[in-house]
Amino acid sequence: MSKKILIAEDEKNVILGVRTCLDAVGYDMEIVEDGEQALNVVRREHPDLILLDLLMPNVDGFEVLKEVKGNDETKHIPIIVLTAKAEDEDRQRAMDLGADDYMTKPFKPQELWDLLKNYLPEHEA
Length: 125
Prior knowledge:
By secondary structure, the protein is α/β, with parallel strands linked by helices. Helix content is 42%, strand content 18%.
């Protein structure tokens, strides 16, 4: 069974890069472009992992982290922050809110695959 990854990202070129990377290894993806949509998908579908941008319209990634990790039903879902925010204080704030990992853009596909392997057991082809 394919693992479901929620991608919360509002930049089209990043979405394309992530989608290309994840298609190559066969993950099932749902893509949303703002934090409010991300929270709705998490509540409805409980994805296996979330790739989360911090800078999004409506509800930012910090609030998504706070809500997902603060809910007993969803706090187990690994969240990898994938963001352009490279400042130490942003990284620390995200980790304090429960992010499992933090990766800055631009990213290398191999680095993303390596991170995903840490959080998702090999899925069946």
